[in-house]
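FIELD: query
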Amino acid sequence: MKANRQIVVISRDLVLAGAVEIITREISSPLVFRDMRSALDFIYNCNPDLLVVDIAEDCDLNIRLLNDLKNEPIFGQMAVLAILPDDFVIPVWEDFLADDYIRRSMVDSELLKRVELSLFRAERIVEINPLTRLPGNITIMRQIQGRLDRGEKFAVAYADIDFFKPFNDRYGFSRGDEALKMVGRLIQNVVKEQQPRGSFVGHIGGDDFIYVMDIDIIEDTSCRIAGYFDKMVGTLYDMQDRLEKCIHSTDRSGNERTFPLMTISIGITHNRHREFAHYSEIGHVASEMKHVSKEIAGSSVQMDRRKA
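FIELD: result
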């Protein structure tokens, strides 16, 4: 089991929360919140590996908020372990979207095993990008294909960071990883803010991201993402490069070149005016629009407006 897993504990019981912290100390430094509402901002921003939820307090509210969270495509893959009072009964288990549960009297003896099992199960069942904690290609495919099969009208945006490779070569993989995490958080936060329900964000790999939203708001959301990106990207560079607004690095042929600061290109398509039967078809058009966007200097958003 990897160390430094991000575990969030939700409980008003200080004794219980303290016990969870001590028991899981070897694999995590848990963050404790009093209730689901107070934890939501952190969950949205950091997408932790596991939620440990004490159901004893505010039972109905916690269950409702937990189910709402798990029904969101972005957070559906997050593992949830519920701690239940010994005499607690769930009337309909299908309406309780925790992945596992443990009785309060068994916490001292069984909690660490259940936590490790929940984390292992989440890794086996759901494929997520280990860097950004966003769903990967299998989940992206299922999300898009499921919407097509249900006959939903929706839009897909394909986002790509321009000049990421020279940045990565110039500053190293560690700084490159920080850039990818920043972009993942940015896209996730803006998409979630603009469409709290029914949206989806995935990480295709490398510097490529994809998100799914309602057709009428995705272009404005994408422009917001591009605008925030341009404001934030300078913080990733050393001061001298930031002042010069360029870096000196090598191209793919190994030649020394000057490159501008990173920008972001976003291509958008939708199925309002044309039919797509397979996720690869709509993904291909979104990729085409992304390439159109990349032909424009600076950060750019290009939406497919063709009706045939």
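FIELD: remark
The longest strand covers residues 155-162.
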